[in-house]
Each structure stands twice: as C-alpha cells, then as structure tokens.
Amino acid sequence: PSLALPSSHRDGGAMAMFLGLAGAAYSAYGSEWVSDYATVGGALKSNFSALGPFSAGDVTVGLVYLWDHEKSKRRESDPATCSKPQPGDLGPGPSPDVLDDFRVLCAMSQVAYWEDKDAVAKFMKRHGHEVIHHDNKTAFQEPAYIVSDCREKKEVMFIIRGTSGAADALTDGDCAPVPLDSALPEFQGATAHRGMKKAADWLLKECLVKLKRAMDGIGSGARLTVTGHSLGAGSAAIVSILLREHFPKMRCVAFATPACLDLSACVAAGADVKNPFMTSVVLHDDVVPRASRQNVDDLRVRIQSIDWYSQATDDFNASKAGKAAAYTKVGVGAVVGKASSVAGYLGEKFAAATKEGTRGGSAKATAGSAASAAKSGAVAGAKATTSLAKSFGAKLGFGKKKSADGDTRAAGDEAPAGAADGERMFIAGDASKDDAPAPTFYVPGVVYHLRRGPTCAGGSVARVKPDCASLCAIQLSGSFINDHSLNEYVEALDALAIRKSPGKPKEEIRGKLEWQEAGETKYKVGMTNWKEHETFVLAHEFCLKKKNEDGELMPKKVDLYRGGYVLENEGDAGHDFKGKGPHGIKIVDPTKKKDPIRLYVPSGEKDLKKWIKTIRRCIEGDVEDPKCAPEPLYK
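Below the sequence we write its predicted structure tokens.
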C-alpha cells in the first residue's frame, strides 16, 4: 500500500482500530506498549517530515502492525542467537576491568539527573571523586554538567546530563549537518548534528577554563574522562573532539549515544581499539541511537511494505469495540474517520494509568467505550496526541512541532531563548528547507552493542561497526523504550561483568506463581482473577521477574528494592487471600502510590518459604551470594 492513504482515511488513518486491539487481539501485551508506541509514533511524525501524509496516529498503528509482522522472526531467532556473532560484529566485548569501569561511568551518568547536589556529592565521594562544579540548570542547547576530580586516580570527570526537559529535547531536533570545526587532522571536513554541536560549543566555552584548572590541580599524568547519556552522550562525543585539542590524554565513554557525527568522524573517533579515545555503548533495541534520518526513511519503507490497514480493519471488526460500533450503527467508517483522535484518547488513558501505577486493567475498560470515544474524542484526542509527542520529546529528545513560519519547537513551548531571529531548524526528510542536504549520522567511536538474554538485559556484548545492520534500522520490540533507561544499562553491565567472572549470573529461584496484577480489582468483582506466570529471581538482582510470554527478550519485572516495597507476610507464614488459600504473598508500597502485588504459591508451603526468603532479600537490597555479584554501585 502507498503512504498516500485514501482521502476518506487520510485525516485519521487506521488508528481507531487501536481501541479494539487493546481490548481484544493484542490483550496479551502489557499496557506499557500502548503508551510507548503512541509516543514514538507521535514524536517521529512531528520530527521527521519524511513520514509524509501519515498522521501521528497512522504512524503509531503502522509501527504496531510492523512490530507484530517482524516479531515472529525475532521470536524464532533471538533466544538462539543472542550470544552468537551477528552481521557487523567486529570482535568480542570489553575485558572485565573495562566492564567494571563502564558500570561506574554509567552510574555517574545516572546521578547527573539527580537534583539534590548533596546526594550527588555523596555518591561521587563514594567513588573517590570530589565535586568541583555542579550546574544542574538546563537551557536551550546548554545542558547541565558536573566536574569532579580524583587525586588518587589522577582523573578529572566531566559528566554531561542527558535529556530531561523540553529545552533539552529541542536540541535533539536541530539536526541539520554543520562543520565539526576540529583542528585535528583526522576530523578535517567532518560534519555533526547541529543542535548537539551548539551544545558542545557552549560546553567548551563554559567549561574549558574549569577543566584546565582541575587538570593542573592534579598535575602530571592527569587524565580527563567525559561521559553522558542520551543527549548528554551526543554532546559529550562532540565536545570531546573539541577538547582533545587541549587535552591529548583524555577519553569519552558515552551511553545511548545518538547518531550525531558523519561516518568518517565516527570511524576516526574509534580508530584505536586497544586504547580508544571514544567509546559508545548501546543497549539492545534502544530507539534513540537509531532515530536518525536514514533510519526513519527505512522505517517508512517497512511500514509501506505491509498491508497493515487491512489487518487493522479485520482486527477491529472482530473486536468487542467493532461489534459495539456495528450494534450502535456507528459503522467502521465513522470510527476510522476520527482515528487519530481515538488514538490520542487511548494514549491519554494509558498515560494516566501508567502515572497512577494502575497498569493492567484499563485496556478493556477503554475498549468498552470505543464507539462513543470514536464520535466524541476529537478535541481531547488531538490534545493528547500532541501531549504524548511532547512527553516523548522531553524524555528522549524528539517531539518537535512545525509552525507556520517553518520553526520547530516542542508543542506548547515558546521560541527558544538564544535562537536567532528567523532561524529555522532542519526537519529531517524535508530537503526543501533552506536547500539543506539531508543529514546522515551514525553512532561514533568504538561501539559496543549490549544484547539481551532470556533472563536479563546483559545476555552478551560485541564490538560492532557504527553502520552495522542492527544500528541502521529502528528495531521494533517491546523493549525499545525501556532499553534507553540507564537502569537497564546498569542491569546489563552488571550481568555482563558477572559473565566475565567464574560466577556467571545464576537464578536463585524459579517456579510458577499466580499473580493478581495491579489494577485488576478495579474492573472485577472480588479477587478471583489470578494468572499463572513462570517467575524467577537472579541471585545478584533485587527484581521479581516474569518470563515474557510473548517471546521477546525482556522479562516483565518489579524492582523490589528501588521500588521501596514492603513485605506484609509475618515471618515465613503465607498471606491468606480470601477465596484463594493460605499460601499467598502480599507486597505493598507504604506510600500507597503503587498498587499491592499479590502472589500465590500453588506448590504449597515448602516453596512458599523459599519465595518469602528471596523476596525479603530483594526488598532489603542484599545479594544472595556476594561472590557471584559485582560490587554494588549505589549502596
């Protein structure tokens, strides 16, 4: 099918089917995927005009059907190949010492998001560093940063904060190619992402003197390390090239690095594999390093290659929502006519459910009102779609909205402070704007690709080409948003560090548990809706994990330690759920912000005691066997 949809569907496309999908054909997925795909669809449409006449809703539903279309191949290959070489692999992953170094740097990138300066200073001191400067305010193309030093290691750290607000998100959208302007011969003629180059120029001007003083304070042998995550990683990569003119003994280690330099610069930055000047770490299907102009073009072609509109129509007609629409004589045409509005309405409902911690039960309730929503949700839906795009932009660095004068800004934002009058940002795929060429950027330096395994984020790791097949396509999966989280990067690096040791990640416990998931009691009478899941806990983690029954390499998990949960069971005794039995486990959030987790052990008292012991360990933040766990980063 062509991108140019029939005129009767062009203003909304097939997205109204989403309500039927959420309550029927796709009910096996958790509600998280709906919000994830809605925000990605809206953001990509807002930021990349290469998606043409598709509406944000069309893009979203096309993404979901493409995901389903491509998923069967991934399901067949991923578990068998996650630890085997893939096209574009150049060599094995880093050594155990380098992995430990990455773990600490990843944690430092994470604390850069903390607003509490005392907490940041305490964490850095735990790792031998004294904070010299900490600017936690961010503005347009002026990211927050931390400078610290460690006299014992003769090291100065320059940590650049990633995307955490609309101002940061605007920087990512300014993606025209501009000269890198490096005096280093290996980077002559190279081009960079304009927004991140501007941020790097500001950082250079703001921090060069501070960094020189810090390095001089340490004296001979001092080394500068630059790190960051997401937008911070892209800015770190570019400013490191500019800083290298002043500090030959330096390195950059970046996490979730966006495509921000042309291929020649990416290769030059990673030329020395044994002692790399620049290293980028990318987790599995992380969408941000892959959200380049050329990859969005590829995504458009892939969406065009499947007949998702017919599939969506069939699914909608078979769903409860479709039958309700037929019964009320609304007709599928009327529903389709306001498809994007319904998509926004659905996204708004799921966003609210996620915010309140009530994931699980809202899909069917929303689907039940599909017919009325299709007729009356236009205004609310349009607002919600814009809100979702902006939300995604604030989180990951996209979500720009083209105004009548050609400027781009996050929805609802004023013109960015510091932007020159009349300056217009390049929209990827729009070759007519200022006659600028479409940029082609890649992930820079020595690139390590962390790959998921069946039990955790760190299944294997390989050194890959910046233009390897895996990074040259947006990988649609249930984890492509979660894979951008630094929590997931830390989990992956922890597991990989253990794999490099004799300990190897081991399961402390595994078995069948019945779950009554959060939110279900709101839509059901009593407590009778229990579902059995294969559940396990790794000995070095604090997470209760459920096997992903959809065949993807991302177990559903609850972090009991960082989530602040409390076990309500007394001693080793089971919790007696009314109408269920005495072998229950009840885990609660004392703040009552999250719904209780209710579990039942069908195998009886013996296994009940094992599960209680393990869950109590996770809540208290202890490891089952310290010999088989990496040194904790945060405790």
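The first strand starts at residue 89 and ends at 92.
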